[in-house]
Write a structure and sequence with these properties.
- The protein is mainly alpha-helical.
Length: 84
């Protein structure tokens, strides 16, 4: 059966090695695995320093400081707030 769509032409596509291309992140930037017995603090400390994880780590530091110094903390989180 003949398709109603034209065949794609790849003659002008330029390819290059993934090893040679620029990347915003490296494997060393990824999160590190933790054991099942690890604490929440260990989990947070092992989050990568990229995307929202970086902001979340900063937030948890401010949150911890606020609680330790007796500040009032209002935290509102919904199901669709936490995403990458």
């Amino acid at each position: 059966m003949k398709s109603k769509y034209a065949k794609l032409k790849f003659t002008d596509v330029k390819t290059y090695s993934i090893k040679e291309r620029f990347s915003k992140v490296q494997v060393s930037d990824f999160a590190q695995p933790i054991s099942a017995q690890s604490t929440v603090q260990t989990f947070i400390e092992n989050l990568p320093d990229i995307l929202v994880a970086k902001d979340f780590r900063e937030f948890t530091g401010h949150f911890k400081t606020a609680v330790r110094t007796g500040k009032t903390v209002v935290w509102m989180v919904g199901a669709h707030v936490i995403k990458v």
